Amino acid sequence: MLLSLQKFCFFSLICLLFVSSFSREVRAQEKPLHTNRLANESSPYLLLHAHNPVDWYPWGPEALALAKQQNKPIFLSVGYSSCFWCHVMERKVFEDDTIAAYMNQNYINIKVDREERPDLDDIYMLSLQVYLQMAGSNQGGGWPLSMFLTPSGKPIAGGTYFPPEDMPGRPGFLTVMKQVHAIWNTRQLDVLATADIIAQEVQRLSKPGVLLKPVDLSTKLIDAVVESIQQQYDPEHGGFDFNATSPDGPKFPVPSKVQLMQLRAGTHPEIAKMVDRTLQAMAAGGIQDHLGGGFHRYSTDREWLVPHFEKMLYDNAQLAELYIDAFRRTSKQSYRKVAERTLDFVLRDLNDSQGGFYSALDAETNGIEGEYYVWKQLELDTLLSPPEMRIASSVYGINGPLVFEHGYVLHYPQSIEESADKLGISVEELDTRLIAIQKKLFTARQQRPALLRDDKILTSWNGLTIRAFAEAGKTFQRRDYLQAAEKAAIYVLSTLRDPAEGHLLRTARGGDAKLRAYVEDYAFLVSGLLALHRATGEDKWLSTAKRLTDEQINLFWDKENGGFFYTMHEHEELIARPKSAYDSVIPSGNSVSVQNLVLLAKLTSDDTYRRYAEETLRAFSNQLQSNPGSLAYMAIALENYLQLFGTPETGTPAAADLFTGGVSSPKMEPTTSAVPASPTPQANAQAPLIVQLKPDPAEAAKHPRITTRGYLSVDQLPPGGTCLIALEIDIAQGWHINANPAQSEFVIPSQLTFISPAGFELNQVRYPTGHAFELEGIEEPVSVYEGKVFLTGELKIPATASGMMNLEFQLKYQACNHMNCERPLRISLTGNLPVGPGKPINQELFLPK
To answer: What region does 821 belong to: left with phi over 0, alpha with psi -120 to 50, or beta?
Structure first.
């Protein structure tokens, strides 16, 4: 088909230019002589162009109507505030009076912030890729995105960065504009025909392929995704974005892929090595800011050394969560340190006083990318004493060759232990001296001209960040992180809402919100609220997540084919309406929605959510099968679905009475079937829960008000590692036990403790939120548990553990009814477990959230 279309491509535009070949000199700033319509916009990116001599329009009815009225082609420029080459094109091209005059005379010029309007960005980036393929080019897309459109918005041709003047083999922007203008005036019917064909192809590619043959929703699909990602692994430097045919190309962190691989790391040692190598290499490389915390956008080289220096909120939220999960998996303090430094950077540099989180920090200073972050040798010699310089040179790799033209990029060429050994000092002493060095360098760096900060607040990116802070608060027992997550959630829910319709809005700046939300805004915010519910046990976050999900289904659901459209049903009509599950630098709205729906089905026992999750999985199952490496987060969502509900094709019913995320549930009738003492594998179905901790029968008889049993997340205790524990308490009808924390200081709270053996530690014990119980004669209600309730915690196993271990836990509680309270009691639960490389069991209780 594409070969037959090439006859329509009767002009050629240079599409992607090698950025390293252009000068980074910046023209001196002059006092603005012009003001265009972008001065009325709120986007920091659009405001950067508000004083160009170009007569810019924002995307909207005025510009589109004028193009049709005057029968002029549209020049569409899409970028974002922290895009280095967007800034270069703005200075070198759009500030040029001659170029601007030609643009104003012959085009309707529209400027778009891709972060505010991701729908336009997706559609026209796909249009560029279709055009390039039709033209026989193997070049790719990027930003700034430069597209020429018909007056009705259909794509004619395009590229990315264009220089102001012609270069050898590369036409300048004015030359390109003249070519397009000439073709439009002399062969307009041919241009329109080509635009129709490109638009039709964009419409086709914007939707998942037609499902000609049903695809089973099974672990085989997930295995294929994992295998595809493994093939992208860099065995030398880590990372899952590696192309062996082009080994020295840029490398991205791709959090969704690392997250999926980390889920498999507990049962696959070879995958665990890949994940740890990747996380450690990123943490050591220049892609991490070793003074201020946080991560830059991506690495320009294979070694993670020289980054593309912009810092994005969505990257740092997702990467912080990766290191939180790695800490949970390994208990390594180095992972915790990276996660906390990343989140502390977000709190320091991207946190609005009202609670929301800003979008990004720019990459350039004085027109030079990375100048804010790198160091000249003379500057270092001036700031640091000779002993400090000796340490810094060894630790930060500034005694080696200069690989970045503008200065040294701080990184760790070797471990702290290796540096300490070479310096002849202890690790503790090196850490202490590094703190002083870092403080000096960071203080000096803060005196440099401040980076441009994109201070718009996006709903979707804030949802990712809320989730990261909630997970960190729960894992690290950091109340300040939980407060940051709660404050951000309140800000988004109160500010980014349409006052008339109540729908979510996309973006806010200075308290003013606008633009209809997209499916990712709903999905990511719901995910963050569910994480807050898990972390705090507060029902308000769960009920809000449920309400927003119901709203999302009403506004975005594809009733004919399942899955969620990217835009609302009432959204303006564009040349295509995307519906995608492609997981890019952020996961897709559909992928996260499946995960949300699975969790809501579990927490609310509403099977409607399960059905929506299954229909969404089926809508993209063909894509998951044919292009597995691009749907990593959808594979995570599918794994969550299968763990909880089994394979749909087998008719396996949903599991009941499982851990409900810390919510005390109503009393359920006890099952009459005994729980098997060992796992019984079942094809495409869940393994039964395995009780590993029980009270002695004689002791259990002394506690008629409760029945207790305990579950661990592994079948063997990993030495030097951790495992999860869930304690199930069934409370007799008509009785309750006190919640923890207790509502009154005079009430004895329920409490789980670890007794033996020595060396083991029970950490992060989490108690569900109780509910109010009013007693006659007592003015203030007490907080209690009734029915079935789960307590959870994390058990740390010492590295010296071996053989069989006799574990003992103890639950302290006080049973009461509406008349009186019995004396406080303690019940012990014990179990014998071997030490070894454990395999996951009881996963229904410990389903990844």
So the answer is: beta
